Amino acid sequence: MMEHRELIRQLEEVSIFECLSEKELNELVASSQLMTFKKDDVIIFESQEGNSVYVILEGMVKISRTNEEYKEVILAILGEKEFFGEMSVLDGATRSADAVALTRVRVLRIDGKVFLDFIEKYPKFALSLLRELVSRLRKTDSQIKSISLDDAVGKVASVIVRLAHDVGRVRKGRVEIENFASQQEIANYAATSRETISRVLTMFEREGLIERDVNKIIINNFEEFKQKFGE
Q: How far apart are CA 214 and CA 209, in angstroms?
């Protein structure tokens, strides 16, 4: 019973579900499945049939594709209270990317038919979903602009800011990003080399903009960092 109440509380904090009542959330949970994945487990494969939506309750998930040179291109890194898999459910096409667990991940798997039924039954839910999808389009536009126009420092800064917004924790003006992605993964996200990532992160650390631990990065003054790099 306690786990069920905690699950409902977590879903209430997911942007697209904030508009739903506790009764409606209970209805959703009753038709869904809790699943756990280990680090590096593939949750969904690109090009497979998509028949479910996943809500992240714990951990971080990498959304990526493989380009024609068989190099990984990271599209997004998602954290708790975010969701993925909705595109295939909405348009009936195959999955457009892989989803891989960056840490231990716990998700709620929502059957695609149930998800579509909720869109039809609850207009407020459909509107919340639409707003979230528009927000993601804006983020994608920003990412494309960064990759196309920024120099190496700007690209790395942009990725750090996006990770801070998506998976960071704010503490007294500082932002902590735990289980920080590897330098190669950041390079794949920023469309640059691992050597460039290492050089820029070292520069940021030397200038006191960030601190690094084994699996954590801390932005000492997040607002100043964003202003410095025009984010």
A: 17
Sketch out the chain's domains with CATH numbers: 2-144 (2.60.120.10), 150-228 (1.10.10.10)
Instruction: Compute CA 113 distance to the chain's CA centroid, rounded to the nearest angstrom.
Output: 23
| Structure-token match 């990984």, residue found | 72
Contact 77, 63 (CB under 8 A): yes
3-state secondary structure of 221: coil
Residue 198's nearest CA partner among 186, 207, 208 is 186
**Single pTM value for the model:** 0.78
pLDDT in tens, 115-149: 999 999 999 999 999 999 999 888 777 777 666 65
Q: Specify the DSSP class assigned to residue 182.
A: P
- Three-state secondary-structure class, residue 25: helix
From the CA atom positions of the chain, what is the Rg in Å?
Answer: 18
CA distance 51 to 178: 31
Q: Are 64 and 93 in contact (CB under 8 A)?
A: no
Distance, CA of 31 to CA of 182 (rounded, Å): 36
